[in-house]
Amino acid sequence: MERKKHEAWALAVLTASVLTAASLLSYHSADPTFFGSSAAGRTMANWVGTLGAHLSWLLFFLIGLGAYALPVFGFWWSWSLLRGRAVFPYGRMHGVGLVLMLWTAVTLAAFYGPKATFFGQEILVGGQLGTLSASFLAARLNLLGAHVLLGGFFLIGLVLATPFSLKSFGRLLLAVPLGVFALLKKPRAKAAATQLKVPPEERSAAAPAARPSRKAKSSSGSERKLRETAPAPPSLAAEEPAPSPREKTVPSGRSVEAVPLPPVDLLDFYEAEEASPDPSDLQEKARTLEEKLGDFGVQGRVVAINPGPVITMYEYSPAPGIKISRIVGLADDLSMALKATSVRVVAPIPGKAAIGIEIPNEKRAMVSLRSIIESKAFAASPSPLTIALGKDITGDPVVTQLTRMPHLLIAGATGTGKSVCINAILLSLLYRNTPETLRFLLIDPKRIELSTYEHIPHLLHPVVTEPKMATRALRWAVQEMELRYKLLADKNVRNIETYNRVLGKEESRKPPEGPPRETANGFVLEHHPLPYIVLVIDELADLMMVASREVEEYITRLAQMARAAGIHLILATQRPSVDVLTGIIKANIPTRISFQVSSKVDSRTVLDTNGAETLLGAGDMLFLPPGTGKLQRIQGAFVSDAEVQRVTDFWREHHPEADPMARRVSFAEKESGSEIADEEMDEKYEEAVRLVVESRQASISMIQRRLRIGYNRAARMIEIMEQQGIVSPSDGSKPREVLVPKES
């Protein structure tokens, strides 16, 4: 019924427009008007008869040549109604803008001639409205002032009535000189590009000069061309030369030279990224949204539209007296009414007196990691641990700093984009750091997600795949954290950044004579530049199943204390349940990312609020930034396996030397045969051995009762005693025999 009503109105407006156009085109001054009659014996010249003669005379009398704009507007109006689009997509302001444009046009026309001849008839150019307005303005503002005022009003009307934007117009004007500048600089860009093709031994000296992009495209083509030829931004260029701390970490057998960072050409660019929704379709959906909410008894209007790569947020201002909870409860009804996959309601939008209604776009735009790394936000970030996440609902790049988080928790169902997000984070770090400034410790129980990073120079240890070995890796990280704090305390500094700066200043002078300092327990302190360490666990749930107590303890200690020591955690899990994401872990990792989950319970487990269950998957995420309690919806940057392979191959090729810190990561070398690693010895093990030897009983329950420990811990002690030959192996229901004689 609504469709037929639109068609009826469209035909009515079209008919009126055709009659108006015919009457204006056939206007004759001798036809009868409101103030006179036609000459005796003269036939009517107007094609629409007496009505057309009166109408055309009245319009020409009032607005002059502006009368021809009315049928044009009528044709556009009828066409919009036939297509089901909003006639005034910007509300009343649209009509105000059209009136302003018409008034300024007829007033300006009146300045340049009182009359003009059209189709053989003399017509008052600006009509009475334009003539009177021009006389009034000329008498008070003179000619120049009147033109400035009318020009300003015309631009205001243009902005209100059309999608015209002064910002976009300014970019268009700026694009012309920038394009000319880029063409003039093209030979220099080619010369810089050839520097990337030099042999590997010379490439390190040529890399910092320029890293042009051979296929970079963006919403402003001229800006991208300028970025191809210009040198790297200062924040990135500062990372490429080798500062003094980096130089000191180079092994003695290697020449001290700058390590080249990967060129952006190793990443792909997707043409679909530039696609944007049709503004008319957005206006139509906004009108439909208002109608559907009106059907449910909620009155209000859409005040702003923010299109993004995957979703579009409609800022809805409800009428006075409408409770927000009513709109929030209509999310599923709106999803069905709008034929959308899911609708998420943000009530209210932080800092605005409006409610955000997020509706999926019909066509999703691909967000590439390359577009984020090439963005100004990524280049301007001063932190070496800057990571690229994706684009927000307005299409702006989203980057954040791992040093501010300082740890990150990622959760989501299988296939929603967790692994792609981890790859995007790791590649972001690889694009800004050499092995001297950043090291990775990767734990991948699934064995396939992080295997591509094997043998890159940033790894402290080969990718850990065994859960028991992962527990030892976490224990090593805790020990490394404690060692780093001893180094920081010895230099009287509070964090790793200050420590490296102080050490760089000291090493620039002559090193002091004498042996290394020793702590009170005899531990030797060897000061050296400390790289950041990023510890990534791809599947936390698997580790919690094997050794939940130990894993939780180590993660908690690292999350609480490791920030100042330069150690950062990135934890990912596909099972966001309370036995995996325990309260202690969540309390110490406030920065979280949630992809699509299966239920509201899982969403509350990860984010402490609902919303993640309505996400669309394929990289659609909710990000809880550090220091805020407001969620941010982001479309994650996509990274293909081929891109990851190209970047990791680049590092293997340019930095193949052995890891100078490998001797410090020895958690994988302690276990052999029946020999028990020192790290696996329980602090109460010696007490348990004395108890067993003295009592001549070797049972798990006895150790539990006497030492007041858990079953698993007591059973592990008995296993170690068996391996060391203290007790005999188990023999069914018979008690174990104590093989060590009792001390006299």
From TrEMBL:
It is found in: Cell membrane. It is a multi-pass membrane protein. Its main location: membrane. One of its GO terms (molecular function) is ATP binding. Residues 395-604 form the FtsK domain. SMART domains: AAA, Ftsk_gamma. Coiled coil: none annotated. Keywords: ATP-binding, Cell cycle, Cell division, Cell membrane, Chromosome partition, DNA-binding, Membrane, Nucleotide-binding, Transmembrane, Transmembrane helix. GO terms for biological process: cell division; chromosome segregation. Residues 193-259 are annotated as: Disordered. ATP binds at residues 412-419. The chain crosses the membrane at residues 54-79, 91-112, 118-137, 144-162. Pfam families: FtsK_4TM, FtsK_alpha, FtsK_gamma, FtsK_SpoIIIE. GO terms for cellular component: plasma membrane. Belongs to the FtsK/SpoIIIE/SftA family. Homohexamer. Forms a ring that surrounds DNA. This is DNA translocase FtsK. It comes from Desulfacinum infernum.
